Amino acid sequence: MTITTKYNIGDEVWFLKDNKIQKSKITKIAPYFSFSEKRGISWELDVKLDAFFGNTYLSKYEDELFATKEELINSL
């Protein structure tokens, strides 16, 4: 089986978090399979939560990520 991905580890992507546009680097790529949901790839992003907690990781699905800020804005 071959799995091809739209993004690679280290790529910067744009996404919405708390209704705000943010960008981050991809730190991990993981396939997911579920009987109740669609199959696909989840992307782990390095995201700063706040000054106290520092960086944490956030998972997003491919359809929630965009290569450019313009692509994200046009999708809204």
Largest sheet: 4 strands, antiparallel
Number of helices: 1
Distance between the termini: 34 Å
**Beta-strand fraction estimate:** over 45%
Helix content: under 10%
Report low-confidence residues grouped into runs of 5 or more: none
The count of β-strands is 4
The strand order across the widest sheet is 1-2-3-4
**What sequence of helices (H) and strands (E) makes up the elements?**
EEEEH
Structural notes for this entry:
With 76 residues, the chain is mainly β. The protein is built from one helix and four strands, in the order ββββα. The chain has one helix at 69-75; strands spanning 12-17, 20-32, 40-50, 54-61. Strands 1-2-3-4 form a four-stranded antiparallel sheet, with no helix packed on it. The longest helix is centred in the last third of the chain and has 7 residues, at 69-75. The chain is globular. The model has no long low-confidence stretch (mean pLDDT 80).
